[in-house]
Write a structure and sequence with these properties.
three-stranded antiparallel sheet, about 65% helix, about 10% strand, mainly alpha, about 110 residues
C-alpha cells in the first residue's frame, strides 16, 4: 500500500496536479458524478474539482477531446491521438499531462 501512495505522490509532482486517485479506489466512490476528473493512464485518475476555477473550466472545456485522445492512444492510434492532444494543448499549453502524451505520441510515430 505504501508503494502505491508513494507512486501517486510522485505522479502528483510530475504532473503538477492536486489530487490523484487510483482507478480501483475511484470505482468504490458512491457519487462519482460530483467530481470533475480525467484519466491519466489505465490506473490513475486526476480529480480536478479542486483546481483553480479558470483551470478547472479549461479542463472541462477540453474533456471530450482529451478523453478521445486517451482512448486513441490506448488503441495505439498515435497520429489521431496526437492531433487531439495538440488541440487540447492549445487551450492548456502548460498542462504537463498533455505535454507528456504529445511526447509519447511523437516518439511512437518515429
Amino acid at each position: 500500500a505504501f508503494d502505491r501512495v508513494k507512486k501517486l505522490h510522485q505522479k502528483n509532482k510530475q504532473y503538477d496536479s492536486k489530487i490523484l486517485i487510483n482507478s480501483s479506489s475511484f470505482e468504490q466512490l458512491i457519487e462519482k458524478n460530483i467530481f470533475h476528473y480525467r484519466k491519466l493512464n489505465n490506473n490513475i485518475l486526476e480529480i480536478y474539482s479542486a483546481d483553480e476555477k479558470e483551470l478547472k473550466f479549461a479542463k472541462m472545456a477540453i474533456a471530450t477531446h482529451y478523453d478521445q485522445a486517451i482512448e486513441l492512444f490506448e488503441l495505439k492510434s498515435y497520429k489521431e491521438a496526437l492531433r487531439l492532444f495538440e488541440r487540447c494543448s492549445e487551450k492548456l499549453p502548460k498542462d504537463k499531462v498533455i505535454k507528456s502524451y504529445i511526447k509519447k505520441c511523437r516518439n511512437s510515430l518515429n
